[in-house]
Amino acid sequence: MAKEFLSQKGVPYTLYDVTKDKAALEEMRKISGGALRVPVIAVCNEVMVGFDRDRVEQSLRCLNHSSEV
Amino acid sequence: MANVTIYSTDGCPFCVKAKTFLAERGISFEEIEAAPGSRAWNEMREKAGSSSIPQILVGDDPIGGYSDLVSLEATGELSQKLGLAKPGPVSPLYDVIIIGGGPAGLSAAIYAARKVLKTLLVSKDIGGQVTWTYDVDNYLGFSQIETADLIAKFEEHVQKYGVEKLVEVEVKALELTGKIKKVVTGKGETYLAKTIIIATGKRPRPLGVPGEKELIGMGVTYCSTCDAPLFADLDVAVAGGGNSALEAVIDLMKVARKVYMVSLTPLTGDQILQDKVVSSPKVEVFTEHEILRIVGDSAVEGLEIKSLSTGEAKRLSVAGIIIEIGLLPNSGLVVDTVQTNRVGEIVIDSRCGTGVSGVFACGDVTDVPFKQVIVAAGEGAKAALSAYDYIINQR
């Protein structure tokens, strides 16, 4: 659902399969303060545990700003 | 605005509903107590032509009882009678609104659309409980299929019939007793239908201990299939003693460093699974132990457990806990309206009827025996065909 949403928005993203990539799993636990749930979505400096469409949409605003600067 | 009169008695539930309905819409009304046999009751019978209570009149025009009130609002006639401006665009009247997007709801959608019923499916997700497993065995046509593929096929099949869907939408309230049923979503939007199919499935039963709610996603989970791989190289616990709990332990044995199994009872699952678990050097089993709390500030750090026999308390240091202590039916929205059994499942007849006219239920939320994907799909089809029969017979 999250992947579909980002594709629809035309937002490029990097996908880490944490069930196969141990380093990514470590990184995910670290940046999320110990989350043991997927998806964990990081946008700019924000880390979101779980997929909340409205929250992700809001967080994407930082991308527009940085591309303007 | 025309005068509205309502004849009512104390303790009549539809009188309360009718009055609430009017009050919520800012329609003022005069209430006349009409106990059967009283003078007011005779007057009501004369004016309204009916002796059932409540009776509602707009001016001198009798409009009937509560369900008629709801129907008139749905068609926009109520505003007309009251002399109010027509309300803005209202929801179209669906033949059927299906609540739930698991196998039961999706199958109902196909059969409803096939009967050319105007259909709306409202659901938090597509797939429901099935998505909690990796693969499905012995769904007819597939000896084994990955869950994601099966759900994609279901969805594609529903799409073929062009069923209208509201996904990621939660239903907040239902009004089922009138002729026109109402579905109110979490966003406050209202949808109207002639029939409702409830296919809301089940959800995991929580432990109900301190720390549990607060740490969901931060080590607390109810889905071992979804989350077990995330527990790689950690010490973890599983709560429960049945087959699901044993399967969770077996999933975790492959990835975790140490697995504690904590069960309130002796283990109850299949012997073959018990043997696998008990013989693993990674696993430590605590039977007849109660979980008192889940400890941790922002993420799970441990569990406090207590032996039921000796009363001895212990702390287990774990980074996560998978809770597998059974399921609860998602019947909370209708528990006041339809009959439910001891465990909260909606009681249905052989045609998926709930006893409330125009309201059907199917799948795991009902008391149908054997909670299987194929059973749920079959029940969904039955519910849709019953809804069709109901609509045809109403004409």
Describe this structure in words.
The complex is a heterodimer of chains A (69) and B (395). Chain A has four helices and two strands, in the order ααββαα. Chain A has 69 residues and is mainly alpha-helical. The radius of gyration of chain A is 12 Å and the shape is globular. In chain A, a hairpin with a 2-residue loop joins strand 1 and strand 2 (46-49). In chain B, strands 5, 6, 9, 10, 11, 12 and 23 form a seven-stranded mixed sheet that branches. Chain B starts with a strand and ends with a helix. Chain B has 395 residues and is α/β, with parallel strands linked by helices. Classes of the chains: A mainly alpha (69), B alpha/beta (395). Chains A and B meet through loops of A and loops of B.
Describe what is shown at a glance:
The complex is a heterodimer of chains A (69) and B (395). Chain A is 48% helix and 12% strand. With 69 residues, chain A is mainly α.
What is the total tally of β strands of chain B? Answer: 23
Sequence stretches where pLDDT stays below 50 over 5 or more residues of chain B: none
User: How many strands, which pairing sense, and closed or not: the largest β-sheet of chain A?
Assistant: 2 strands, antiparallel
Structural class of chain A: mainly alpha
What is the H/E string of chain A?
HHEEHH
Strand arrangement, major sheet of chain A = 1-2
What is the rounded Rg of chain B? 26 Å
Biggest sheet overview of chain B: 7 strands, mixed
Instruction: State which percent range the strand residues of chain A make up.
Output: 5-15%
What key attributes describe this structure?
heterodimer; A: 69 residues; mainly alpha; 4 helices; 2 strands; B: 395 residues; alpha/beta; 23 strands
